[in-house]
């Protein structure tokens, strides 16, 4: 659930990475980038209901058809009015129920975070909370602190609280309601970055801000949102409640993996402030008008000064250093400027619903879209949303961005392998960081090439602007490189995400693990094959001496292979939000431990073969198996596979 790419539903990319682990191979490539040619901005189209409807009719149905998406809903506002709200496709494929923008509820996912941020800013306006006070002033439980600096609401709303990611409990498919305090206070994620320094998108951080709203207001978060945000705007078809009230539940769109798949169950978000909203397009149009301060009835959620504060970057170079040169987080919004126009936005994903909202504060316009399916390609809606938002900007708000200035860090200095800050550092999911990496290549002309741009999952090229900032060729997105003592320490992209350099030890861990498991598999196959060969050739087998150690080494090798296979299955389940049981995780840990203990008989066998003068082949084979077992054990220790804490 992010501004550009999925925060909750990245199963497609993760599954691909895990498949690579399963087959014990990694591959990467770049190829020649296909760059767009610069175009002269066209004159803006007439921004009217008729024109917008014509554009949507020519665009959205084709998108749904090509991507295998069941339905979509869209709202567009401008000039202080709702220009249009539209429904496309089906809310219930089997029942033939079409999407109705006034009646059909969708799940906007992390667009919910903008509502949470608005609630926080209402309390700021009233003087009830301070953006820069330590959050401990408002909480009734302790959260992990690894740094002396204050942790503030400003940090929580800009995704710079420093928390690692957690997946467990994020979404469930049945339940009677979320318990926000319990979800936040029970085994919270570790703080792995200094507050205010490293953008790293955090559902936990935003939900913590929502709990502060609950604590300070003295009412449940869902009730506060209903009374202070939804009711004043007449958003009577929207709710954060889970499950939905009966009068809304029957109007909820089904969610689908793809248009030809079965309807999926209603998703229960474990931390409601981060993504539990259900709403119609009509209601989202009212919210956009309020955010723009443009409702005809004059109803406002925030005064003009507070809205402007929300739209402005919330952190500067004092804490972000060079990162402040790229697009930044505001107080709850992402900077997503396009064509020289100021744009703030937020995206959101659940398993089945995929949404995006863009506001043009200076132009008094906004657009919201939500799809109720992931599409046949799994991550198809990522590109569709970006295309729709870019098409809206190019059609109605064209313009030019500033020319690039070729200076600053060279591409060669930045090139390398990176992993996302938005991951786990203290749980077994930390292993994903070495498989789900981003390759940055220096082109001959001094630009940077991403084989898979982490913000779009498409090939991307960035040219230097100056001061460590690089701009997307053919686009408006920027990245910034931070350095320390002449070394790159990170690349910030899409405002709330940071790529961290993969050190040599971690970079080698994946191929070493692959090689180790391959060796153990070959050894397991070689032992029975050798026995058959000796029987056919009527050659003597190994003597009784060392038989026990040989058997125990084989047990260790088999357990090592089984353990890695078990972890692949567990991680796939976890990233698919299927909640692997504690019993399953503990069982795999026991198997992993037995594999590690296999190092002992491997040493005993090696010593015995040296004493018996078993020959270089036998000794070499034993050493290779020992090294393979050691590599698997080292990986297990490095990435917390044997940790007593099995939170994730």
Automatic annotation (TrEMBL):
Identification of the protein by name: Beta-lactamase-related domain-containing protein
Keywords: Membrane, Signal, Transmembrane, Transmembrane helix
Leader sequence residues: 1-27
Keyword Membrane assigned: yes
Domain called Beta-lactamase-related: residue spans: 56-382
InterPro entries assigned to the protein according to its UniProt record, in alphabetical order: AmpC-like, Beta-lactam-related, Beta-lactam/transpept-like
PROSITE patterns found in the cross-reference section: PROKAR_LIPOPROTEIN
Species of provenance: Glycomyces endophyticus
Residue stretches spanning the membrane: 508-530, 551-577, 583-604, 616-637
Gene3D superfamilies referenced in this protein's UniProt entry, alphabetically: DD-peptidase/beta-lactamase superfamily
């Amino acid at each position: 659930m992010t501004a550009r790419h999925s925060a909750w539903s990245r199963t497609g990319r993760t599954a691909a990475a895990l498949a690579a682990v399963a087959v014990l191979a990694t591959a990467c490539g770049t190829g020649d980038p296909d760059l767009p040619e610069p175009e002269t901005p066209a004159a803006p189209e007439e921004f009217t209901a008729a024109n917008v409807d014509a554009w949507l009719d020519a665009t959205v149905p084709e998108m749904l058809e090509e991507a295998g998406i069941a339905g979509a809903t869209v709202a567009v506002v401008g000039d202080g009015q709702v220009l249009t709200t539209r429904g496309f496709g089906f809310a219930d494929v089997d029942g033939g129920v079409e999407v109705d923008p006034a009646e059909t509820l969708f799940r906007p996912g992390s667009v919910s975070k903008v509502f949470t941020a608005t609630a926080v800013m209402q309390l700021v306006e009233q003087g009830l909370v301070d953006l820069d006070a330590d959050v401990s002033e408002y909480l009734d439980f302790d959260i992990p602190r690894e740094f002396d600096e204050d942790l503030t609401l400003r940090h929580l709303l800009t995704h710079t609280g420093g928390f690692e990611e957690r997946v467990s409990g994020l979404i469930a498919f049945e339940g009677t309601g979320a318990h926000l305090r319990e979800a936040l206070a029970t085994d919270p994620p570790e703080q792995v970055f200094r507050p205010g320094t490293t953008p790293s998108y955090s559902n936990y951080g935003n939900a913590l801000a929502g709990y502060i709203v609950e604590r300070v207001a003295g009412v449940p978060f869902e009730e506060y949102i209903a009374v202070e945000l939804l009711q004043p705007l007449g958003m009577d078809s929207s709710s954060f409640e889970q499950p939905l009230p009966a009068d809304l539940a029957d109007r909820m769109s089904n969610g689908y993996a793809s248009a030809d798949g079965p309807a999926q169950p209603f998703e229960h978000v474990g931390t409601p402030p981060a993504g539990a909203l259900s709403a119609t397009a009509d209601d989202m149009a009212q919210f956009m008008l309020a955010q723009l301060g443009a409702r005809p009835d004059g109803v406002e959620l925030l005064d003009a000064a507070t809205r402007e504060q929300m739209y402005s970057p919330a952190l500067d170079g004092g804490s972000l250093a060079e990162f402040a040169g790229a697009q930044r987080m505001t107080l709850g919004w992402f900077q997503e400027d396009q064509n020289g126009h100021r744009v703030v936005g937020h995206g959101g994903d659940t398993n089945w619903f995929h949404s995006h909202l863009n506001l043009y504060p200076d132009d008094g316009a906004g657009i919201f879209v939500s799809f109720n399916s992931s599409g046949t390609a799994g991550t198809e809606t990522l590109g569709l949303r970006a295309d729709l938002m870019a098409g809206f900007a190019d059609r109605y708000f064209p313009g030019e961005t500033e020319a690039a200035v070729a200076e600053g860090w060279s591409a060669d200095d930045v090139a390398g392998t990176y992993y996302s800050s938005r991951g786990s550092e203290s749980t077994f999911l930390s292993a994903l960081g070495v498989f789900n990496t981003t390759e940055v290549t220096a082109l001959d002309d001094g630009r940077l090439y991403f084989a898979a741009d982490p913000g779009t999952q498409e090939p991307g090229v960035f040219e230097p602007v100056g001061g460590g900032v690089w701009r997307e060729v053919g686009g408006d997105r920027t990245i910034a490189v931070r350095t320390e003592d002449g070394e790159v320490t990170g690349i910030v992209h899409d405002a709330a995400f940071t790529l961290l350099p993969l050190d040599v030890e971690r970079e080698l861990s994946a191929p070493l693990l692959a090689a180790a498991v391959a060796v153990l598999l070959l050894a397991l196959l070689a032992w029975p094959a050798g026995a058959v060969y000796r029987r056919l050739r009527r050659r003597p087998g190994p003597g009784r001496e060392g038989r026990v150690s040989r058997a125990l080494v084989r047990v260790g090798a088999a357990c090592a292979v089984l353990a890695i296979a078990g972890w692949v299955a567990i991680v796939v389940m976890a990233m698919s939000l299927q909640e692997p049981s504690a019993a399953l995780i503990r069982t795999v840990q026991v198997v992993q431990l037995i594999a590690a203990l296999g190092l002992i008989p491997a040493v005993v066998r090696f010593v015995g073969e040296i004493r018996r003068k078993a020959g270089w082949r036998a000794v070499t084979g034993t050493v290779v198996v020992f090294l393979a077992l050691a590599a698997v054990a080292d990986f297990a220790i490095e990435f917390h596979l044997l940790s007593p804490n099995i939170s994730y």
